[in-house]
Amino acid sequence: MNYKKTLIAxxxxxxxxxxxxNFAPLLFLTxxxxxxxxxxxxxxxxxxxxxxxxxxxxxxxxxxxKIGYRKCVVTSEVTxxxxxxxxxxLPDLMPDPFIGIIISVVVYAIGxxxxxxxxxxxxxxxxxxxxxxxxxxxxxxxxxxxxGVILLSTLFxxxxxxxxxxxxxxIWAIVPVVNVFNFASCPIExxxxxxxxxxxxxxxxxxxxxxxxxxxxxxxxxxxxxAQWASAFAEAALGLSKTAGDxxxxxxxxVAMGICRALFGKFGDRINLIKFMICSGITCVIxxxxxxLSPLPIVSLAGCLICGFSVAIMWPGTISVCSPRIPKGxxxxxxxxxxxxxxxxxxxxxxxxxxxxxxGDNLQRGLLAGGIFPIVLVAALxxxxxxxxxxxx
Length: 393
Hints:
The protein has 19 helices and no strands. The longest helix is centred in the middle third of the chain and has 31 residues. The N and C termini lie far apart (41 Å). Helix 1 packs across helix 7, helix 7 runs antiparallel to helix 16 and helix 12 runs antiparallel to helix 15. By secondary structure, the chain is mostly helical. It folds into two domains: 190 residues, MFS general substrate transporter like domains (Growth Hormone, Chain: A, Up-down Bundle); 197 residues, Up-down Bundle (Growth Hormone, Chain: A), CATH 1.20.1250.
């Protein structure tokens, strides 16, 4: 069977998710100015997006095995495309444009949530050699998708005009439309080989499941605590404009993540994954210390970029470490991992923001608090290694 076609479809799946997650935030001020939507309501858009993903994660654990992977993953691309197209039209058709935006966000967030749960187990089930490297390379496409969305959208707004953003929204929708046909025709295997996977209650009886959840929460929080504040950090550190801050902050952060995941995708078969993740976690702690404690703005920004490189392996690495150790986990296991990652990705930036506010809007103090997540991740990995050595002896 042509599993390379499956891999390409999954690559485009993560690019679709990157479009869903990163395009609307580029338009927040446009929504504010064009539709007179208060910034307080604008801030609800990412909250609705991630909350919808969390709900989809929970539902997927119950229904995907009954419906089937192919139907669900095709639905992920259809809803992603539909939500993007709706975003270009629905705000102008609704009495309240904000309601139109929220409906559109919910629709493509459903697609994004399905992609998050389904794509990794689809690749995990394919008979590829060096699964850990393949998984890392797969997740790098989310990074490259994020970079592409930010760069190409910025160029479009610069040369075509931001007032034509609705055209670009429909152009981005072409990616999931094309991928509908890829997922409809590529070979797809079940992650448990056709056997019934474990249910949520059975998973909660496994001690290793709790280790996996802790690792995913810390992976999501370590990544997004820095990523969500990268633009503001770049503006504060270098005095850049909003556009330049987006490029120097989240864009370069995503480039650093993508490079690390691509490198591990190429050379990962020669590397011990758990040791590499422990080293990455330690490097991540150092990056948070650089960003939060250095008196030199350029060193703080370097800490932000090093963080992008160090967190790259955490999310896909946790999947690769835990899935072979819980081989009957099935869809419920991957859904719970996705939910844990989303919880960490939501809680981490909130912690940084609240600590920064309590410290008198001192973002560096907030980021110092964010360094707790890679510390816990390293401790959990060391604990896992020691417990397995003890079991073997």
